[in-house]
Records
---
Amino acid sequence: METDIEKVKHCVSLWLEGESTDQQEQFLKDYFSKVSPEEIPEELKSVAALFRGNAALGTERMPHTIVPPQRNSNRRLWWMLSSIAAVALVALLFVTQKDKLLNEQAPATDNVTFAYNKKTVVPTESSQNESQMTEQIAEKSEAISQGRTKKESTHVGKSAEIYGYDYDGKPITNEKEAMESVECLSYLDVFNENISTLLDF
Amino acid sequence: MEKKDLFTSEIIDRLWRFARTILRSGEDAEDIVQDTLAKAWANPFTMNSPEAYLMRSVRNACIDQLRTKKEFTDEFPEIAEPGFVDGLNDKDLVYNALSHLSEQQRMIVHLKDIEGYPISEISQMMGLQENHIRTILSRARKAMRENIETELNYGNRH
């Protein structure tokens, strides 16, 4: 049909300029795939070969197949078993050595103690060993509980019963607070003992 | 898209056809596609368009291979000649005409006319403006038409 040929020629000229639309290109593909070679005008034979050749090339398949890499299940299993064994070993060591760690006497750290009554907690040197400090804490607890306290002047000049000094260095005038502070200090001492033992171990 | 979806035959064939057009060798194209997919499998996959990523990867791998080959063929120019196509069937005519184009022209013609990618996607893959893509496409199509006309006229005379 002449109309089709004129339309084909028009679309081909746009296609060669790179200006054809998707619809015009689809029209040309359909036309050249259906028309018999004898009906194609001489000037369009090379373009027809282009369209048919492009369509044929677009259906070709790679000769050999590619499969996804297989996960190495043996390797994964080995890693899992190794991890479980490592965790079990650590747990076993902890369980068997726990009693030993907790019951052992901490070696005397003669010259190191923590000064709870200062603003910053820093290790300071002291001539007292830890057993003497424990005794002092026990004595002070007993003194507080028996009401044997020392009257001292506070920083503002007023008299009050001072049971001890807190972390910031302020006087503790409340008995309950003082008892709690002493208890806390004793727990901290035990904690320090255990840390030192673990570090040495 | 999951990693295993990369290994569908449709994507693999598309990658192979593209690599073959660039390299003008089906065997080399297979190697490139296998290497590209192996790397994609090994790496974490977070991009939105894996296929476009793979096409770009194949393109880059092909260009690297061509550069390596060029150093070799500069010394042995007879090896650089495009493959001789004996037949006059349409597929062979187009394949032969493609081999006479530059690498850039071959890539763009393949992506547009053989695989059917829109100009916008080709622009992203190639890193070129759309107008530039159309210009390259126009020149390549005209060159291929002339090459095929020559082959057809030669075939008709003999």
---
Amino acid sequence: MKLTKTLLATSALTVAAGAAWAESHMSSEMTLVSWGGAYQASQQKAYSEPYMEMHPDVAVVWDESSNEAVAKLRAMNEAGNVTWDLVDVVASDAIRLCDEGLAMEIDPEEDLAAAPDGTSAEDDFGDLLVSDCFIPQIVYSTTFGYRTDMVPEGVDAPSQICDVFDLETYPGKRALEKRPINNMEWALLCDGVAKEDVYDVLETDEGQDQALAKLETIKDEVIWWSAGADTPQLLADGEIFIGSTYNGRLFSVIEEQDQPVAMMWDAQVFDLDGWIIPTGLDDAALARVKDFVKFATDTQRLADQAKYISYGPARASSAPLVGQHADLGIDMAPHMPTDPNNAQNTFLYNYEFWADYRDDIDAKFQAWLAQ
Amino acid sequence: MSNASEAPTPDDGLRLMESADTGPVLAADGTPLKRSLGRALRRQKLRALMLIAPLLLFVLLTFIAPIADMLFRSVENQIVSDTLPRTVVALKDWDSTSGELPSEQIYEAAYYDIFIAAERKLHTRLGSRLNYELTGASSLFRKSGRGLDDIGEVYQDQFEDLNKAWKDGETWAQVMGSDAWLSEANSWGKSSGKLAPALELRDGIAELLPKTAESYSSFANFVRVDDGDNPASEDPWSLVYAALWQDLTSGADVSAYSGPNADLLQEAASAAQDFESISFTDGFAEIDEDWVDTPIWQTIKTYSPKYTSGYFLNSVDMKKTPDGPALRDEDQRIYGLLFKRTMFMSLVITISCIMLGYPVAWILANLPARTANLLMILVLLPFWTSLLVRTSAWKVMLQQQGVINDVLVWLGLVGDGDRLVMINNQFGTIVAMTHILLPFMILPLYSVMQTIPQTYLRAAKSLGATNWTAFWRVYFPQSVPGIGAGSILVFILAIGYYITPEIVGGTTGTFISNRIAYHISSSLNWGLAAALGAILLAVVLILYWAYDKIVGIDNVKLG
Amino acid sequence: MADTANSEAFVEFERVQKSYDGETLVVKDLNLALPKGEFLTMLGPSGSGKTTCLMMLAGFETATHGDIRLDGVAINNIPPHKRGIGMVFQNYALFPHMTVAENLSFPLEVRKIGKSEREKKVKRALEMVQMGEFGGRRPAQLSGGQQQRIALARALVFEAELVLMDEPLGALDKQLREHMQFEIKRIADNLGITVVYVTHDQTEALTMSDRVAVFNDGRIQQLAPPDVLYEAPENSFVAQFIGENNTLDGTIKEIANGVALVELDDGGLIDAKPVNVSQPGERTRVSIRPERVEFNVDRLAEGSHTLKAEVQEFIYMGDIFRTRLKVAGNNDFIIKTRNAPDQVRLKPGEIVEIGWQPEDCRALDAN
């Protein structure tokens, strides 16, 4: 009895001493880069606040630069002075940062926490580990919201992606993102191309022309957005009938601002958002960041984030833990893009395709827009 | 100065001057006056220079240097030759227009280059660079980074099957490294905080096994510097096995080798002839069919020089092809249109600023100082609000469900069904930018007008001129320098604006700067952005020069 | 006096008032008439209303009340450019972006005069001011005096019959100013134009004008030819403002035969000519020019009153001597004497007796 006690105490001491040693070798400051707004707030509540409770000595600084993170990181890297410790980016940017050598490759087994049931991180994240540098947090989708009060009388509310292209049944302005990604796929889909052939068609010049020609049919009625907040605002002002944006933005227009807006989930495009660790961190900073990332991407933390914003956690094991909205008290699961009811017809952002074709198609798309 | 007692007095100089009737005029201390003056002036200049040195340094660092950097980036293209040095050399003799595939030597060079680049994680960077020129290059290089291992592994496996010793990094180190290096490396520890000793090749090994020596050196250097490990104990890349096989099968006389593991090497030399082999061409073809097609090789060859005109050609809707510069496909031409539009809209914005700013400046200049200062605050007020806020305010004003349309509908001037489209087009951009840039027109105008006394107008009237004639013939010509200064300011600011056009410009109201911003922050094509910026800079300088020729730059007054 | 000149007046102010703020009058009840060809100077300290009068005449200010007539026509509502009045401004107001010839040509152009005639007139005007070769220069390339001439030529080139000049010589140095005074006067006389000239320099006013209107406090204090103004100021402001002047304060004792006996405040008695005093017991300020004071009292008439004076200072000024005395408590009593061979030079500390002809000493209001 006495012996076990002593043993326990000794081992506890050893563990504590070990932890203290590790702690002393970690930087006490950490700069996290994110998108600002409600999304960053959800990260603060779900990740950084609990982390700081555990480590009161650590100061966390937030920088709202994610939308220009790639360019800034490259500039920092060229100047040899990387001041960011952890950067929140969309998956396509993560791939690019990884390609450019600006993001560090991670080892999921070592750097990420396993699921509570013992499933390894690699299996728990599964296919969402789209790049060697990318640590996914959420699945979000680009989808449509429409004004319920502007649906013409005697017509059903829009329920399919091709309703966006149907000016006769659904007159009014549309809002689409000022880039080819997603729009080209939707256009082809509504021009008779089968879903599985979309990218094969889009690889060809003819396919690109076909998509642009389809978009041409609604061009005069489109307001092109470049900031995620544009479409919700345009919807709230009644400037447009239907518009694409991130599903979380629409959630806040519908549920938080109580606007007469509804979701149209058809052909929503899934995309991922997550962390990357910049290359070139010193050992202390890297140790701290790795410690934080392991914590902030564990099953519970990812599920917690969904309390504050309607984006789906990137871990399979987090999904059952998603509960109710922290303020509104509504069940969040039906608002997740990944909810089976919403995800009947979906796309996953084709990272490989767009990494190759982005420059080329964007040039064509912009030339088409400018005419 | 310090020994004033001994220093000659001016009187001495006078006496000297009197005594020396001929010859150069001398200063008080007897030195020629000219030299003395020169020295005094030089000292003065030096002191003045030191006084402005911080400013000069600041201007150089923050103004000249970035522009120089931008100009450099617009032609810089070293990434290709730095990442693929062997390939670039090998491609020199390949005729890119022949339609024939490159030779096996070129594939071999590319194998070594891309393999090493992939180890150093540089291949994807090159991929994104070449993707600007050839769609698909990005994924091609990403794939190849992983795929090239397969080629070397063919040989690695066979060597290792032949003798387990080949698996061991130390075997390789003993063969390749000199004895001195080996003993030094074996006593090195990571905790020393220093890099491991640099590889010193064994005498004669570079002649005996040239490719192996070269690739092993690359490997050793990488392990030592990039990983901070000891090359003597690390297992080499599969590339090194492929190199050894090549050396052994191309007639290396290993019997001449007498260092450690000579038996191993001889055993391998005789076995290597019967190894299963794979040509580099086939290896590349296995990774991606695109490697056995000409476009990727043409692109690499076209962009292999250290400096390229490619970005500039791209900025004027052209592209480099193996046959020389050519126009881009019509559906990809955008920059010419955008340059023209930027110029045109900036001109319209400048003119609207003159039209609106002139009367305001006139009123300000002719009001009593107190009232003028109060009004001046109103003029400057836009400066104190965020650009985004100001632009977004115009959105609220101009959109179809916005304030102006609401008022027009309420007044019955416009039907509810056909509200005016005043935003997300050129009109919106012009309105919002005129508003934002107006102070830059009013301020120089105001300061010039303040210096024009009212008596000129009175004089003109007393001489019989009507109000209009007095204004047009007497006042206006004197305010032209203010218009000139304001116009230059507004125009140059306008062509560089991108936030406002991005928010309210829609598709027809965007500027060339929006594309520059896109290439800086989204596509990361900084070379193209720099070339576009350089062209914009050149246009501004040309306009400035033309203005100087036509109006005269002395006729610009900011105050 | 205005009434008498009415019929032949070329320029006429009648009961003109001007207020800028609606509370105070800058010009109070101005009546003034000048015949064709007259050179009239408005003289006064700054703020006396003289420039306002000129500007009302030019049309740049409107009269709050009253009429201004030019050649018998009320011009109150005629805009400046239709009045046909030439004007020379204080800083010349030559248009800096035009050459001299273009400046001169400007009034002719706006009158739609043909090119050849324009050139002829410009040439003639330039020759008149002896600036014939300067037609191609810009104003900035000319000296102050030359600019002045051009400004004058510009005001005359369209043959205005009335020319207004607002302190035109203010910016020139003394020598040039004197030269230009003569020049302007000569040209004005030659052309027979009417000139209204504003200045605060009394020498300028005295040397150039046919008549001088002395302004103070929004009113004309005296309107008279220069000699009258100097010799016979009508009130103590004019006496003080024009030329150098000695003043002594006192009380009228009696007035008889056009001579007033004044008892000075220290008890001394003097004779003076009553100007705007009428009754014994009235306070008065007597004024006497320094050059009219006599200290050789033998030259005065029998029984003249004299005063004792103590010499304070003797200043040699070349053509004249200037002696400062203490007289009846006034420490700044000045005597000017000509530097003649037999002239006495007084020494400080000397006590002398001074006196004057009663008509040289004017008993004025006590202000």
---
Amino acid sequence: MYHIKKIIIVFSLVLTFNTGYAQESNSSNVQLAFEHMMNTEIMELGKTYKSSFGEKLTPRSFKYYVSDIGFEDDSGKIHLVAAECFLVNEAEPESKRIAVNIPIGKYKKLTFVLGVDSTRSVNGVQEGALDPYHGMFWTWNTGYIGAKLEGISPSSKMPQQLFQYDIGGFRTGQNSLRTVSIPLDSNFNFKSDAKTLLRINVNVQNWFDGKHSLKIAQHAFVHTPGELALQYADNCATMFSLDKLVRY
Amino acid sequence: MCVIKKLLTILFICTIGLCFIKATNKYSLKPKPVEFAIPEGWPKPVYDFSKNPLTEEGIALGLKLFYDDRLSRDGNFSCGSCHQQFAAFATFNHPFSHGINNAFTTRNAPGLFNLAWKPAFMYDGGITHLDAQPLAPLTAPNEMGETIENALKKIKADSAYRSMFKAAFGDEKINTQRMTKALSQFMLTLVSNNSKYDKVMKGEEKFTPMEQRGYELFKSKKCISCHTEPFFTDFSYRDIGLSADSVLKDYGRYKILNKSSDSLKFMVPSLRNVWVTAPYGHDGRFYSINDAIEHYRSGVIPSPNTDSLVKNGIQFTNDELYQIRAFLFTLTDKTFLKDPRFTLSGYQPKQVDNHSH
């Protein structure tokens, strides 16, 4: 009897120690925080801003899909830490934070995919963040809107001065998926005993001028995959940069 | 030692008991599987049944959803309003179907059958999966005009639905995926393979001499190149020399990939049950079967994309037209048109009441 007790105690101790050890020393908790900005100002829905072209705009909705979050180490290896899709929505503050566990160490880049890939687009109706009910799914031409910016602008020539950019498309020649790569401080050590806040500056200004100059006066509506959507997708990919890394 | 033994025995009995309760519980909640029968000689379906296995409960739920007018914004239109069984689930005698607020659709409602083999949906193939298809008419402002959110809200509020979702999927969770999976389950059961043509092919019946002549013409005039057996479509996109309607400006497949080589191409429709699905063409411009066949003889307006098979028209005599037509009538599956499994007993489409023509 004594032996059995002893074995059980030792066994459970080993078990506890092992699981605790695994969690504590191998991974580090990181909160990705997406801060939606208009240059240096924090962006708020319903507030009016000016684009670099001097066009006034009042955003009403801003959301986008992020997936395949990974951290690239010095050797160039990407550690994929979350493969699923997250819908980041300015109107839902909690959606702007994504918690991930990454292997401890130093990294030179954070990478993720902006948009929803073809596998997730064509295999029927998805659940969770990808539920078509979120209004990010085209019903007439199967596929997801990868990023959406809607609002009003006096520069728009559309009814009610609306602008609506639904950027998506996954088919050949229309692929709006973009991989975003954000350089990190490669001296920063992600430790197991400290949580890290990784603040990402998302400059919505770049939506219009990140790579291609796209004025609201010229294009106020984008509702289909295609060439114009690809230009906006290029611009979207430039919105993201590192604001800061903070231990807390 | 003795105490431990007793305790262990009690623990053992409890565990077994719990397992048993769990097992029986699970058993009683498990939906009854339905096997999808592939007609002899037909290829493997493209629909992946492993991701949405057919069950009696799932099909029953899909049937109820298919005929539920509440899914539309004004409560007047169900899927079944425009997809009528007696018209092989097309809209009988309408070039366009009715939507909310006296709106019309912009294309002719296709019949619904043999969907498990259909690789893409809509005349332009824009929808790539059967499960995603119902979301288009549900949300289109000129069809059911509802948001997915509101449709789900109405479903969730109905206790009959809650128990049916539980029976079909194991718990009461109701979301877009489950709603569309159930609709697919019902629609997948719409298999039409019992026409006279099918019986002739199986050696159970014989064509009349006129039908036989029509079948031979159907092959020799190369109708069969696009309207390929056994589905009487090869599911390809083709330009058959129809000029775009000046109001609709519908260029078909072009809308999906923006490629000029796709302009005016539409998916080849199946000719099964063609007798009951008039009018014809993607915009219902052909009033009768005669008109549709006549198009290939005298109506082709060639454009750069027009299919080489029809570009110069297809020559046939009036007698031959009637022979081809006689063959096409053998594609009518009367069992399918009256199959009681596809009707919700007591269902009366509401939109018939406010029909003004």
---
Amino acid sequence: MNVITRGVRNAFRNLVRSFSIIITLGLSIGLCLVMLIAHQAVGQKINDVKASVGNAITITPAGFSAFSQANNALTSPQLSKVKSLAHVTGLTETLTDRLTTIGSSQPSFGFGEMSSGSSGNNNQTSLTSPVKINLNRNGSGNGRGYHLFINGGGSLPSNFSPPVTIIGTTDPQTLNQQNGNSAKLVSGKFINGGEDTNNAMVSTNMANKNNLKVGSTFTAYGTTLTVAGIFDTGTQGGNDAVIVSLPTEQRLSGQSGDVTNAVATVDSLDNLASATSAIKNQLGSSADVVSSQDQANNAIKPLQNVQSISLISLIGAVIAGAVIVLLVMVMIVRERRREIGILKAIGASNVRVIFQFMSEAVTLTLAGAIIGILIGVVGGSPVTNTLVTNSTTSSSSFSESGGPRTFSRFGNGGGSGPVFRRPAGGFLNRGAGSIGNTLSNIRANVGWSILLYGLGAALLIAIIGSSLAGWLIAKVSPAEVMRVE
Amino acid sequence: MLKVTKLQKTFRSGDTEFAAVGGVSFNVPEGQFASIVGRSGSGKTTLLSLLGGLDKPTVGTIEIDGQDIAAMNDHALIDYRCRAIGFVFQSYNLVPNLTALENVLLPMEFARVPKSQRLERAKQLLDQVGLTDDKQHRKPGKLSGGEQQRVAIARALANKPKLILADEPTGNLDSQTGKMIFDLLHNLAKSENTTIIVVTHDTGIAGKTDKTFRLQDGKLRK
């Protein structure tokens, strides 16, 4: 029997005590691993988000937000100056509006006009929105889909239909990519964003709801439009929209030259900051200019908080485990002073005795590590998701702020009236919004590396925890054996 | 074989110094069975600790085959305790979590005796002390006091030491078992040509040894 075997056997000398220690260490190591898994998963997500950040700059009218009711649209002449700035390689402009369904009624508590630029009677379409509204009177709903929060009285008319979002854009294909939503053409073709025609693209949901196919027609602003293509963004918000070219939307809505949103593309990530500054200088106080880098940084803040929490918890759990082992080993050494004296008296060196006790500590912690790894495997993913979900939910207002103008018109933004909330990741929910939508999609992987980290943590805990015990062992005199009990 | 010269060990308690062993000198030739007798507190156990290299003297030398253990460093002392000394204690001092056989194997493991030789020697020694095969695999808690002391004697002889130091080896045993253990120790030491020093307050045992030293207040009395 060698030193290690003796250490292993000694670890189970007192079964009840050993079992208690192993369970406690298992919880500690399990917490270490859960936090490590969370830390790694969130870190990977942050890296993914950073890596996926495009070299895009979002330009919106100053003060524009979902609930601010900002009304000073940008104009094409203003934005044409942006196109000529250094490092700006492209500019996609959009004008967004909302149409009511012909024959539907608006609620009595006043959703107000649907568009600022065109008369209310013209803002109608033959389409019916595929959006399903969840009515919520206490304002505490957190379910999926659209929510209409009504704090006060009022009710929806029986023939109420949610408005239909119509987007005029200079580049429907690029628009999709910039959203972060991978919209795909399901049938037909993309329209030409620079051409003023009566062609439109509809989403799959919209097409299904209204029995539309490529070549079908519908009316908007009193004009008949033809479906040229059907797309699918893969998101609820994105699949509720109609797309036309920017000139078409400006003509139909009577908002000639107006733009509610623009995205500038920069030649390199290295030039993103300088181009953002140049655009800010060019547009002055009339526009809010935010780079995708800024948006990503804001979006990943909650994740960084989760990462910090998990790191602190990880360190805390390692320290707790080490303290447990340390106290246990000190107790064991104090109990076995005489035995240590015997071993030394019959020829064992300090190193040999310390090694035996360290083997005991390692055995206990490795047994704890097995339990800890099980806890880590089972709990890693749910705990990570819970941490991330709680963190990103608390910061969801940020995601909302990037929403399209149409929604700001839909609700009154406070008081006792209704507030309309759409799910994150809408078709025009650019940059941070689309990033925010994917933040909670975290995959917590439990691979071999985690198992190795678990064993490594166990060894670290055992070594740190038994260091003081080793010092105490070295101090025990072999003459201890002569002490008469 | 053993030459002790002006050996002194003092302990300090606050401002007071106390000499547990005060300037002791004596010789024990190789293969002799010597005893040290004295009352409790006379310094017997302290003297045995010094002879066994468990503690270091304040002054004096302890030469075994011409080598002064008082001048040895810690590493050399460990080797000395491992190979040159065998201990037999009053309270047996076996490792409770190991079987009788494993207890006897332990000093040979520390001395890096090859595995195959260890087991053979341990079994042979346990047979010699009269421990049956069944009892060789029992832990100390499952053995009687006399049996535990037999295991302790076998352990003390494991590395064929030059010197066996026994501290009241029969102190915890009834007189009949004590006599049996004493005879066993005596016979085994003779057969292995080992020098033995027994610390005892039993004058009956002391009378049977080759040489007796009387210790009183840390000093030898004729």
